[in-house]
């Protein structure tokens, strides 16, 4: 989607004809659910409505209102456990592995408690995320603090709490972390985030390891080697290892292979030049999920096996012992476990070029609860959730209620042609980076997060109210 200051839909060539993306096919059954897009417990009831975690979405809408984020607890926890088990099995013979859930995908105290109970650690990248982990009782030694511009207060709080690792992102940060450790009379374990020069084949704003960006210490420019020297010179710091993150929505291990080779090359160089064998290496996250039928992600077991093979091969070539490996899945755990439930409002057909038209279905949320379509040109799927339909499919666009032409949730989807105001619509794959990136644009309160499991529903995060918004307005 091309950028335009008045909204993406004003960009040249966008939306001029009702063309169908190559990956989108008219369904034989407009009520069909593609299993790869939904959490494992989602299905249609005999009445045609969606059921998640044993709870009918019509009951969820009646009790909690819409829009609402629905999180399938059993599915979330099974995906976290799948990563834990896959990496434990694949790296067990090599020295072991740790899985750190990337809290930026979605985090609340209940989620942090699930992770701890299920043997998964927590990666945070702000003081707020750190506060959630601490409040939830996550052991500080099982947490990591990231960030390219950590404040002194955030560093001090992490050190005081006894956090397991701080990932240093710049040369200037080395002294600040060391000084905090000295103030608290401790030796702080750190990793160095290395920019390995690998650009994941994804959206530009989601690729984070190429050279021209804000994250990390350049391998090519020598900043990473200088950071190693400076950290080793500070007795307040314990250099545990190296870290790299190459991007998001990655569907194969090609980028990881190149990044791992370069990261382990520096790992071996540290051993040769400084006589220090670093015990850890963190390969980051970015594992992709299926938002639509065009996506074909690797399962956790396949990803773990491939990465273990890559790490073992590179370490053997370099003549170094295999360090303990960490990975940081977030989207791959939370994304498919959640969907957003909306109520349809205005439905209208818009005439386009060459006698074509497009069905616009407006819902009671929008870019304030899902900015990814506008920000990343992301694709989503959608279904009518409150009933089954025998009507033929029509090409539709699901849009929000905000005062922006780019307020689009689902760019292209086949919905039943009888879709009407009052229907419940469900958008899968919104468990990650939707509630966590939500805003109060147009002073619209943020939706709740409702967990479902075994026929019961409960709010993990309550619905924000207008009173909440006005409380912040001190004038």
Topology:
Elements: E1 43-44, E2 50-52, E3 55-56, H1 57-64, E4 68-72, H2 73-91, E5 97-102, H3 109-117, E6 121-124, H4 127-136, E7 143-145, H5 152-161, E8 165-168, H6 171-183, E9 188-195, E10 217-218, H7 223-232, E11 237-243, H8 254-274, E12 280-282, H9 300-318, E13 324-327, H10 331-334, E14 338-351, E15 357-363, H11 372-376, E16 383-384, E17 393-399, E18 408-416, E19 424-428, E20 449-453, E21 456-461, H12 466-471
Parallel strand pairs: 4-20, 5-6, 5-13, 6-7, 7-8, 8-9, 9-10, 9-11, 11-12, 12-13, 15-17
Antiparallel strand pairs: 1-2, 2-3, 4-14, 14-15, 14-19, 16-19, 17-18, 20-21
Describe this structure in words.
This protein has about 475 residues and is an alpha/beta fold. It folds into two domains: about 10-65 and about 335-470, Lyase, Ornithine Decarboxylase, Chain A, domain 1, CATH 2.40.37.10; about 75-335, Alanine racemase (TIM Barrel, Alpha-Beta Barrel). About 30% of the residues lie in helices and about 25% in strands. The protein has twelve helices and 21 strands. Strand 7 (about 145), helix 5 (about 150-160) and strand 8 (about 165-170) form a beta-alpha-beta unit. Helix 2 runs parallel beside helix 9 (about 300-320), helix 5 packs across helix 6 (about 170-185) and helix 6 (about 170-185) runs parallel beside helix 7. The chain is globular. The two termini are about 40 Å apart. Mean pLDDT is about 95; it is low at about 1-15 and about 205-210.
């Amino acid at each position: 989607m091309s950028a335009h200051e008045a909204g993406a839909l004003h960009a040249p060539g966008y939306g001029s004809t009702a063309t169908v993306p190559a990956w989108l096919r008219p369904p034989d059954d407009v009520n069909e659910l593609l299993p790869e897009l939904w959490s494992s417990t989602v299905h249609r009831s005999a009445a045609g409505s969606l059921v998640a975690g044993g709870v009918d979405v019509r009951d969820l809408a009646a009790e909690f209102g819409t829009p609402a984020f629905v999180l399938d607890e059993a599915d979330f926890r099974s995906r976290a456990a799948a990563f834990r088990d896959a990496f434990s099995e694949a790296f067990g013979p090599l020295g072991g592995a740790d899985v750190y859930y990337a809290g930026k995908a979605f985090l609340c105290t209940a989620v942090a408690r699930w992770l701890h109970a299920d043997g998964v650690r927590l990666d945070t990248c702000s003081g707020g995320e750190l506060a959630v982990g601490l409040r939830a009782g996550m052991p500080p030694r099982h947490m990591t603090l990231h960030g390219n511009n950590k404040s002194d207060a955030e560093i001090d709080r992490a050190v005081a709490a006894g956090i397991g690792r701080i990932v240093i992102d710049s040369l200037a940060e080395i002294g600040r972390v060391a000084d905090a450790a000295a103030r608290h009379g401790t030796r702080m374990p750190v990793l160095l985030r290395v920019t390995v020069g690998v650009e994941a084949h994804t959206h530009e704003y989601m690729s984070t390891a190429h050279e021209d960006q804000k994250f990390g210490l350049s391998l090519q420019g020598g900043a990473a080697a200088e950071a190693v020297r400076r950290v080793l010179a500070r007795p307040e710091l314990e250099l545990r290892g190296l870290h790299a993150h190459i991007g998001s929505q990655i569907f194969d291990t090609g980028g990881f292979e190149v990044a791992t080779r370069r990261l382990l090359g520096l790992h071996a160089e540290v051993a040769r030049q400084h006589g220090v064998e670093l015990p850890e290496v963190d390969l980051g996250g970015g594992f992709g999920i299926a938002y639509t039928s065009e996506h074909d992600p690797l399962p956790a077991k396949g990803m773990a096996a491939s990465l273990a093979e890559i790490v073992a091969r590179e370490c053997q070539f370099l003549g170094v012992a295999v360090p303990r490996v960490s990975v940081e899945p977030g989207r791959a755990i939370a994304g498919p476990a959640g969907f957003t439930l909306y109520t349809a409002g205005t439905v209208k057909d818009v005439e386009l070029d060459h006698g074509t038209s497009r069905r616009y279905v407006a819902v009671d949320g929008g870019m304030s609860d899902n900015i990814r379509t506008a920000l990343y040109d992301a694709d989503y799927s959608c279904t009518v959730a409150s009933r089954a339909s025998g009507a033929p499919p029509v090409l539709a666009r699901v849009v929000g209620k905000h005062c922006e032409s780019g307020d689009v949730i689902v760019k292209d989807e086949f919905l039943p042609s009888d879709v009407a105001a009052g229907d419940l619509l469900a958008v899968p794959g919104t468990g990650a980076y939707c509630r966590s990136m939500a805003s109060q644009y147009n002073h619209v309160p943020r939706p709740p997060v409702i967990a479902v499991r075994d026929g019961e529903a409960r709010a993990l995060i309550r619905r924000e109210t207008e009173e909440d918004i006005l409380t912040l307005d001190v004038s």
